[in-house]
Amino acid sequence: MRRSLPTRLIAGAVTAWTLALPGAATAGPPAKAADASACAPDHPCEAAGAAPDYHALRLAAETELRTKLIDPDSAQFQWPLGFAYGSWRPTIYPRMTGYLGCGMVNVKNRFGGDAGVRWFSAIVRDDGKVALAHIDQTVGLAQAKPYCARAGLPRPQAGMLDVAATPAQSVEMLAPSADQPLSVPAELARLAALRDRGVLTQAEFQVLKQALLKQHTSP
Description:
By secondary structure, this protein is of the alpha+beta class. The protein folds into two domains: 5-149, no CATH class; 163-217, no CATH class. It is built from six helices and seven strands, in the order αββαβββββαααα. Strands 3, 4, 5, 6 and 7 form a five-stranded antiparallel sheet that branches. β6 (114-124) and β7 (130-135) form a beta hairpin. α5 (184-196) runs antiparallel to α6 (202-217). The longest helix is centred in the C-terminal third of the chain and has 16 residues, at 202-217.
């Protein structure tokens, strides 16, 4: 179902609005804490130890969020904000410790029609397990959007949105089928189909396309 012009304009306005979210351009690093108990509730703080793999956090969150969607293959995630460590209690849920990330994803209704773009929130624990994956399925009962707006999250961290940071995912997408040898035109067509279905963004498509061409021309 093709969205009407007003619906598309509203979706565009929502996307533009996120650029001005509180905390999206927070200056200076958050305070360090040995564990989340030392963090101010519902405010970012920096966990002790090495920085996490933000790309892995994003993939873990998206994988769990897809299970909440009627048509997960059509999901197109938007990440205007990055992740922040802390002790979080999103509105209707108990308090959780981990990395909070927020963004938007397109959703479909039970009839397969386009239901617009909805906010989501996800919390990934230190062990990589997803403690929360919530999508605002109903606009009038939004939980993720208001919580994310006041959470003070940073902009996406370096590498978080980089498809090249996950070689295993790239290899899987580039792998030829078992019953036929690698055909560059066929693989390019397959990647284009993934892009058209929303599995890949245009940027990710270009990265994988270049990787495929390089792989084909390497001695």
